[in-house]
């Protein structure tokens, strides 16, 4: 018998213990690849009944097997043929068999089945067409083939951010810029919010000599002021109060405010939805799903790797990961065994090092503060082109330097803190994330300090005035530093400098966490800045586009991919978690400036209101009475409190449900173990009984022959002979 | 069945589309790829078979540590020599495509990891699996103590009925909770899936 080779170790094809073959659990696992030369499905059924019929007299298994076969057939009929793990010939036979059976059905059912089939095919074609439109599909395939799924997750994260920024830009464009642009064409009447149309800033008039104008333009381009302030880039350009179209009036300040809130919400929902798919399973079990050994072993190999080099790297990274995890287990054991004296010593060291970290962070923040103040003051006086540029970019330079140096410091000192390796990595990352995102906050706070400390005289008016150029400069400098630090300079320096530092830098691996932090930093700036600079998402999109190609070329040509393993699933979760932190951080300054800060006196859409938020209550008061009372009711305290209470109740219910499920799962597990033991025990007893029977009645039929062929090496579902071989089974009776 | 002409018939194409998870384009590309592997005499046979050595020398499989097992699992040859017909090849691509269900993938993964073909993953299978993953040479293997520790960890996580082996349903259960499986067990022949 050539079939069923998976479960039969005896190459002669003789069945093992027929008892095990009759077990319903074994019968349900009978999906076997058969060569195309074998017969029809009847053959398969007969192979089961053949086994059953050898014991038909004694066990009456035939009926059981046949009933089970019927149940299987009706079960499998629900699923499409291609979802059965069989060879093509068998699937074809199944399909023909089903068509035969379908002919017996009524014409209504036939029609329903065929429409279902065509609909499914249409859906698949549609999905195929959509997936062809995916951005960067070909490039990502190449990267996946060369480097596996860990690095791929970085690039798909980049793609996600491009899409997010495009959507943000479309929102801003559609609701804010498009009405302004189309107003003259759609016979709309725009009212501005100040009569004289004065400028936001007064620039000294320069005599128009060619080179001076060119210099001025470059300076303006790099600092975001000057002529750029008269473009759509700056929010002060949006001086429109309302646009009166023939049918309705379009309230632009309201639209501006609502779009800001909308894009923050949209980002939040999209990120949460994207991270939920990987995170859902993690919530059911207590153990750390991402770090489980089964996940690493069974899902360890990326079958999409084609490159020999990449395969070798993948192997070594897997080896490293396994060794690290095994060592971590041993270290955990060691930590649990620590004496009290050692614990005290470790805690003292950790305290000192944490204080050191805090001082380093405080020093960085203070230097950012100083640099911002100095830069603001220095912008009052113009010395020359280069020096002016440096003064303007001073905060950005300081922030980038701090972001470059602090990770090195952190990774140096974490070695002395004696944590387990996985925790070391995570803790260092957390510190870097904190450093990066807080530096932006410090910049904003120091700018805010600048504004409140000078209210009159020759200081520029308005927080927004000061903030907008700084955000723009941060963005530009971030892009320049990313560009220069990655591609050309690295290649140049490695090729032309021979000192050790250059060599070390050149051989740097593609460190995924640092790269991701760069991107998240840029995206946080984008979220903060879009309120003041509506075209910022578009600039970000272009920036990410360029970064994608730069990183890809860098990776392919220069770097070795990281030897430290980065799993796709845990990295996706990590990227999105850091992005969420960035979003939360970005919401704070935006909320404060909408709600608290009084607007610039001469610029922007909110000039006629004390704070930007005031647009909303004023617009609500102009709505019809019914809608107004409804909205007021929703925003009242009573509603908020009851909503909060209901949400808490729902949460408690869901938590209780999850706890109950967990208990049931544990009980079922224990039951399974018990049942497995029962089964093994019973089979052992039965085999013993069989053997004593055979000893007593050596001539009684095929029963004894089949038990003769019990090979000591066979493995069963129970595996009892593997673990505890009973002494009898070693001898053929 | 195989075909002597270089084009697949339309009926055959739609039948393959229905019986596998591949799209029309992917099937055609696969056919082209398969025909390139056939020697001239074989092309005229009704069901040409590509011998295992030829399959193993394909660039996508050359660096895959499970290449021999893949050939054995998907082959329907009577002589158990790992040779593949075109339909076996399509089955292989279908199991590794993006739209294949988790059940199919886990089933075939189980068969691939079951080195001694006995229907369960015992310590011997797991040890061979780990060695495939880390490398064949001595300095890339784990030490015996580490191997023991690793295998006992795996069995602790996946062996529900505590019999010392992982059977198919336990394996499928573990895979369904593994977040990385779907993204790693796919796209074996990348260019076909473009």
Please describe the structure with a list of short key phrases separated by commas or semicolons.
heterodimer; A: 733 residues; mainly alpha; 3-stranded antiparallel beta sheet; 70% helix; 2% strand; disordered N terminus; disordered C terminus; B: 194 residues; 0% strand; globular; metal-binding (chain B); CIBP (chain B); magnesium ion binding (chain B); EF_hand_dom (chain B)
Tell me what you see in this structure.
Chain A contains 28 helices and 3 strands. Chain A has 733 residues and is mainly α. Chain A has a 3-stranded antiparallel beta sheet. In chain A, helix 18 (463-486) packs antiparallel against helix 21. The model of chain A is unreliable at 1-16, 31-62, 202-207, 456-460 and 701-733 (pLDDT under 50). Chain B: This is EF-hand domain-containing protein.
What is the chain-wise order of helices and strands of chain B? HHHHHHHHHHH
Proportion of residues in β-strands of chain B = under 5%
C-alpha Rg of chain B (nearest Å) = 18 Å
Shape call of chain B: globular
Amino- and carboxy-terminal Cα gap of chain A: 24 Å
Gross geometry of chain A: globular
Structural class of chain A: mainly alpha
Number of E strands of chain B = 0
For the largest beta-sheet of chain B, the strand count, sense and barrel status come to: none
Beta-strand percent range of chain A: under 5%
Q: Using DSSP, what is the number of strands of chain A? A: 3
Write a concise synopsis of the structure shown.
Chain A is mainly α. Chain A has 28 helices and three strands. A three-stranded antiparallel sheet of chain A has the order 1-2-3.
Question: Can you lay out the helices and strands and say which pair or pack?
Answer:
The complex is a heterodimer of chains A (about 725) and B (about 190).
Chain A: H1 18-22, H2 24-28, H3 41-53, H4 56-59, H5 61-78, H6 88-104, H7 107-132, H8 137-147, H9 149-182, E1 189-192, H10 210-223, E2 240-244, E3 249-251, H11 252-284, H12 293-298, H13 308-336, H14 340-378, H15 385-392, H16 394-413, H17 421-453, H18 463-486, H19 488-496, H20 500-506, H21 512-529, H22 536-557, H23 568-595, H24 615-621, H25 625-634, H26 637-696, H27 701-708, H28 720-723
Antiparallel strand pairs in A: 1-2, 2-3
Chain B: H1 10-19, H2 24-37, H3 52-56, H4 59-62, H5 67-74, H6 86-96, H7 102-113, H8 123-134, H9 144-158, H10 168-176, H11 181-184
Helix pairs in contact in B: 2-6, 5-7, 7-10
GO molecular function (chain A): mechanosensitive monoatomic ion channel activity
Family (chain A): Belongs to the TMC family.
Pfam families (chain A): TMC
């Amino acid at each position: 018998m050539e079939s069923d080779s998976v479960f039969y170790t005896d190459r002669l094809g003789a069945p093992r213990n027929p008892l095990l073959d009759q077990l319903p659990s074994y019968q349900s696992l009978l999906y076997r690849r058969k060569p195309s030369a074998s017969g029809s499905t009847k053959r398969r059924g007969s192979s089961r009944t053949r086994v059953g019929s050898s014991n038909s007299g004694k066990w009456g298994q035939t009926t059981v097997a046949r009933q089970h076969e019927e149940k299987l057939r009706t079960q499998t009929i629900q699923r499409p043929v291609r979802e059965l793990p069989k060879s093509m010939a068998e699937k074809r036979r199944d399909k023909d068999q089903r068509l035969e059976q379908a002919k017996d059905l009524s014409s209504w059912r036939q029609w329903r089945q065929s429409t279902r089939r065509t609909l499914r095919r249409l859906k698949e074609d549609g999905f195929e067409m959509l997936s062809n439109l995916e951005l960067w599909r070909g490039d990502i395939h190449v990267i996946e083939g060369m480097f596996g799924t860990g690095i791929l997750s970085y690039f798909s994260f980049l793609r996600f951010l491009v899409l997010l920024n495009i959507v943000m830009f479309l929102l801003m464009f559609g609701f804010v810029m498009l009405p302004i642009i189309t107003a003259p064409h759609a016979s709309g009447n725009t009212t501005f919010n100040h009569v004289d149309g004065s400028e936001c800033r007064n620039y000294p008039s320069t005599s128009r000599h060619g080179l001076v104008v060119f210099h001025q333009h470059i300076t303006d381009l790099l600092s975001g002021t000057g002529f750029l302030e008269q473009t759509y880039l700056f929010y002060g350009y949006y001086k429109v109060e309302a646009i009166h179209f023939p049918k309705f009036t379009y309230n632009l300040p309201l639209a501006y405010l609502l779009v800001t809130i909308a894009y923050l919400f949209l980002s939040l929902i999209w990120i949460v939805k994207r991270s939920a798919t990987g995170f859902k399973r993690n919530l059911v079990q207590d153990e750390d799903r991402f770090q489980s050994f089964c996940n690493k072993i069974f899902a360890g190999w990326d079958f999409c790797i084609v490159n020999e080099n990449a395969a070798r790297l993948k192997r070594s990274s897997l080896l490293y990961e396994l060794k690290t995890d095994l060592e971590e287990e041993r270290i955990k054991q060691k930590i649990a065994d620590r004496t009290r004296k050692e614990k005290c010593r470790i805690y003292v060291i950790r305290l000192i090092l944490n204080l050191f970290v805090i001082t380093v962070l405080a020093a960085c923040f203070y230097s950012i503060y100083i640099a911002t103040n100095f830069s603001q003051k220095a912008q009052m006086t113009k010395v020359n082109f280069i020096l002016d540029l440096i003064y303007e970019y001073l905060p950005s330079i300081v922030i980038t330097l701090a972001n470059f140096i602090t990770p090195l410091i952190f990774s140096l000192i974490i070695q002395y803190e004696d944590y387990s390796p996985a925790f070391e990595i995570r803790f260092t990352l957390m510190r870097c994330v904190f450093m990066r995102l807080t530096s932006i906050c410090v910049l904003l706070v120091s700018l805010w300090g600048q504004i409140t400390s000078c209210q009159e005289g020759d200081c520029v008016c308005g927080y927004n005035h000061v903030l907008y150029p700084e955000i723009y400069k941060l963005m530009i400098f971030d892009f320049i530093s990313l560009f220069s630090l990655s591609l050309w300079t690295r290649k140049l320096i490695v090729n032309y400098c021979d000192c050790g530092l250059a060599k070390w830098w050149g051989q740097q691996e593609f460190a995924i966490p640092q790269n991701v932090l760069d991107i998240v930093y840029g995206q946080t700036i984008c979220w903060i800045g879009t309120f003041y600079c509506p075209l910022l998402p578009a600039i970000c999109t272009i920036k990410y586009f360029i970064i994608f190609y730069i990183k890809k070329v860098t990776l392919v040509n220069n770097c070795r991919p990281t030897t430290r393993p980065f799993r796709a699933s845990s990295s996706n979760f990590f990227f999105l978690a850091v992005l969420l932190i960035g979003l939360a951080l970005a919401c704070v300054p935006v909320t404060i400036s909408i709600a608290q800060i009084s607007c610039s006196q001469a610029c922007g859409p909110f000039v006629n209101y004390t704070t930007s938020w005031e647009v909303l209550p004023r617009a609500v008061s102009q709505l019809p009475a019914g809608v107004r009372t409804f909205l007021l009711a929703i925003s009242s305290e009573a509603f908020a409190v009851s909503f909060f209470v209901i949400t808490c109740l729902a949460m408690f219910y869901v938590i209780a449900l999850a706890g109950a499920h967990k208990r049931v799962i544990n009980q079922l597990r224990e039951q399974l173990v018990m049942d497995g033991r029962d089964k093994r025990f019973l089979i052992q007893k039965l085999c013993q009984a069989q053997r004593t029977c055979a000893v007593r009645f050596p001539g009684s039929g095929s029963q004894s022959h089949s038990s003769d062929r019990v090979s000591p090496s066979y493995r069963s579902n129970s595996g009892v002979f593997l673990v505890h071989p009973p002494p009898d089974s070693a001898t053929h009776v | 069945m195989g075909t002597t002409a270089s084009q697949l018939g339309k009926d055959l194409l739609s039948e393959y589309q229905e019986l596998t998870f591949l799209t029309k384009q992917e099937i055609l590309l696969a056919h082209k790829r398969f025909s390139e592997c056939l020697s001239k005499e074989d092309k005229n046979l009704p069901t040409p078979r590509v011998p295992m050595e030829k399959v193993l020398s394909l660039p996508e499989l050359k660096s895959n540590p499970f290449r021999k097992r893949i050939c054995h699992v998907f082959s329907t040859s009577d002589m158990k020599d790992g040779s593949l017909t075109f339909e076996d090849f399509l089955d292989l691509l279908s199991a590794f495509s993006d739209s294949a269900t988790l059940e199919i993938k886990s089933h075939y993964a189980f068969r691939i990891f079951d080195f001694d073909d006995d229907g369960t993953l015992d310590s011997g299978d797991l040890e061979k699996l780990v060695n495939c993953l880390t490398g064949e040479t001595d300095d890339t293997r784990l030490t015996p103590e580490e191997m023991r520790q690793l295998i006992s960890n795996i069995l602790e996580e996946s062996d529900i009925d505590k019999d010392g082996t992982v059977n198919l349903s336990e394996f499928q259960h573990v895979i369904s909770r593994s977040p990385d499986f779907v993204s790693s067990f796919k796209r074996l022949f990348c260019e076909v899936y473009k």
